[in-house]
UniProtKB/TrEMBL annotation:
GO terms for molecular function: nucleoside diphosphate kinase activity. It is found in: Cytoplasm. It is an enzyme of class 2 (transferase). The keyword Transferase applies. This is Nucleoside diphosphate kinase. Coiled coil: none annotated. It catalyses: a 2'-deoxyribonucleoside 5'-diphosphate + ATP = a 2'-deoxyribonucleoside 5'-triphosphate + ADP; a ribonucleoside 5'-diphosphate + ATP = a ribonucleoside 5'-triphosphate + ADP. Major role in the synthesis of nucleoside triphosphates other than ATP. The ATP gamma phosphate is transferred to the NDP beta phosphate via a ping-pong mechanism, using a phosphorylated active-site intermediate. It comes from Alicyclobacillus cycloheptanicus. Residues 3-140 form the Nucleoside diphosphate kinase-like domain. Its cofactor is Mg(2+).
Amino acid sequence: MAIEKTFVMVKPDGVQRGLIGEIVSRFERKGLKLVGAKLMSVSQQLAEQHYAEHKERPFFGELVQFITSSPVFAMVWEGENAVSVARTMMGKTNPAESAPGTIRGDFGLTIGMNIIHGSDSPESADREIALWFGNEALSYDKAVDVWVG
Ligand code: RTP
Ligand code: MG
């Protein structure tokens, strides 16, 4: 069983539209475990580091401007194959091509404002969790039965 951690972020459009709860709920119901979360403003430097792989792309400036324009909700989710499971739940990069039932397919229209980010590989996840959370993300056992009844 490959237990992984992945970095997921509700982008400014998702926060402004009140979709944090919906998105957190979907990941919880899927069975992933929330091990880190914070609402935060993004500095120019953090945005440029996060999206470094896109530095030469024509949309880089717009992307950095967008992600720094208003707070994001950064999270770390843990579980079996968490990286690919989260990507599947998000849908394709372009919401217009994302299947209904996915987050982008249900809530998005345009590629520039596609609501959510998720790490694209375990290596990216390690890099992004270190970048956004350092050592802050938690590790804990889930014992649901103890808390109800
Ligand atoms: P993300 O990194 O945000 O999770 O999205 P992704 O892996 O599905 O897509 P990626 O190729 O990494 O692109 C990063 C973000 O850049 C914006 N984008 N705009 N105008 C364009 O053609 C274009 N292409 C990409 C999107 O917001 C995408 O999520
Ligand atoms: Mg990406």
